[in-house]
Amino acid sequence: MKKNSYLLSCLAIAVSSACHAEVLTYPDPLGSSQSDFGGTGLLQMPNARIAPEGEFSVNYRDNDQYRFYSTSVALFPWLEGTIRYTDVRTRKYSQWEDFSGDQSYKDKSFDFKLRLWEEGYWLPQVAFGKRDIAGTGLFDGEYLVASKQAGPFDFTLGMAWGYAGNAGNITNPFCRVSDKYCHRAESHDAGDISFSDIFRGPASIFGGIEYQTPWNPLRLKLEYDGNNYQNDFAGKLPQASHFNVGAVYRAASWADLNLSYERGNTLMFGFTLRTNFNDLRPALRDTPKPAYQPAPESEGLQYTTVANQLTALKYNAGFDAPEIQLRDKTLYMSGQQYKYRDSREAVDRANRILVNNLPQGVEKISVTQKREHMAMVTTETDVASLRKQLAGTAPGQSEPLQQQRVEAEDLSAFGRGYRIREDRFSYSFNPTLSQSLGGPEDFYMFQLGLMSSARYWFTDHLLLDGGIFTNIYNNYDKFKSSLLPADSTLPRVRTHIRDYVRN
């Protein structure tokens, strides 16, 4: 009996530990995921969801007719944008083999989704979206869609016009307003913005259900497709069913794997890689700001004190070749700030370093940021106000810091102060990658190389700067010397670049 009790106790502990480990591995359900076209949605159809603000996704989907390469970003909680390249596997890039070889057709498009109503306890989330805004309009269309969550289920119902509504399973309600809404242009000229056809042409009701399984990394999808695929650019596609089913598996917090069965006869697979710009943090472990520890004021600048300040200005505040001068009742500091994107951080650190060891009678600190020995901006700070802010004040008695940006002042006109000399000679080696997408010779053209650079300052106003590029590898041999047919009367426009990169 004791042995059985012991085994049951061990089993209970093991199950508890396994459940705890699973919770740690997958703390949250998936939530919204990317559609086949990119952007949050079901499979072929969209939903009203928008990814968390700041989320950036890179997507790939593949089936027999299309490959979709897309990136999607949630710019705001209410706005999402998508850029997509589509590889039409059943069509050639052009009918001239000398022009584009056997490359398949490529199409570039842009989408957006705008949240109109945020989900409440009773009411669904509502969104309006537009696919393929500009260009040839292969997937041009718009939709109004609503989504409502109920427990592990997320229900979607919407109406689509254009590509996603090609089945025409309902009469376009706008046809009752005007006959012009009953027809839609079948194609657009490259570069056109296709808002002129909004809410025109065939319309369809679509919908779907997403189910968050008890196993957090797995989410299932079922949708009713509003398209009949009879007018696809890839050709008339057979459709055995309007119902599409799929699954999303979260392999990691930054990666989803997708598998679906669509039109009753087609397998679609792909993946999504994601990050969130709002969650990004610099990898650099920054040194803390200098603490406010004012020393007794000295008579003038002391060599040892200034040497310590210059070192701190270089390595804590991020000023290269810092220089300190004292004139009248102002302490001047200048240098080239390289460490912080927000220059106010560098100025704040410089002020802290300087105010801790001030000569007698200093009433103002002036910090000048330079670029290539040229003064760019000067920030002046009142010493008394700075001391009050750093020392802290009682609640309700705080005062704004008396600080202002003024016209940049070049201190070299007043002679040299104490400084850390800049290295007159410097050099660097940087790997480079030049690339282009969507060309007729090949979809992806690139050149990998090494840029070797060197510079020498003869004086503060005379610089010799140069570099040598070394090619490592490229596929520019696919470039053709000219894309113009021999009988073309069009003038050459920027096409000599092909001859340049080949030679």
TrEMBL record:
Q: What InterPro entries does the annotation carry?
A: YbjH
> What's the superkingdom here?
Bacteria
Q: Which UniProt keywords apply?
A: Signal
Give the signal peptide, or none. Answer: 1-21
Keyword Signal among record annotations: yes
Q: What is this protein called?
A: YjbH domain-containing protein
Q: Which organism is it from?
A: Escherichia coli
